[in-house]
Every structure is written in structure tokens, then in C-alpha cells.
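Quick start: load a record and inspect it. Here is Histidine triad nucleotide-binding protein:
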Amino acid sequence: MNDCIFCKIVKGEVPSKKVFEDELILAFHDINPKAPVHVLVIPKKHISSLIDINNNDKELMGNFLVKASAVAGKLGLNDKGYKIVVNNGNGAGQLVFHLHMHILGGWEGAASGWQI
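Running the structure step on this input writes:
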């Protein structure tokens, strides 16, 4: 995808504040955070959303979840907890059509107003 901002981040054409990177997955800080800790985890392969995954993506999707969990741990979120959010399609608020997970955490206390 030539116009995909996340593909451009993967290629190094757009800067990002990386948290993790391997041959399949990239994690970086969101430029418009919605939580004290807000990191995006993306597969380097362009997949528009969960709606577009197929059986050929099973191994990649497993890796995607395992790496998201490891990134959350690296960010120190395991002790207090965190949320994983994946928006799929316009109606769910997806803004960038490259599959990505939001790792959100860092809130203090149960009354911080972040629950849904």
C-alpha cells in the first residue's frame, strides 16, 4: 500500500518512537495517546483489518498476540493491567486501515474513568 501511513513507518519513510521490532511485528508509541501508555502494535505485512485475515495469516496472528503481550510487559503494564483494542472498519472507529492493536494502560486506581 503506497499511501498507508503504517506501511511508511515500517519502511522507515515516516519516523516513529519504536518500542519493539522484529521481522514480522512493529510496536511504536501512538502520536495521539488516549492513555498514559498508548502503544500501537502492527504486523509489517499490510492487512487492512481483522476482517481481511485468512487461514494463511494464522501464524502471523499468533505472533501478533504474543508480541503484543511481550510489549505490554516491557512497558511495565503487567502488574496493574492494560487493555488491548482493535477497531475494525469505519463503524468501529478505525482510522488507519492497516491492522493494529492499541495497548492502553498506565491508569492509577479503579476510579480513573477509563472503564467501558
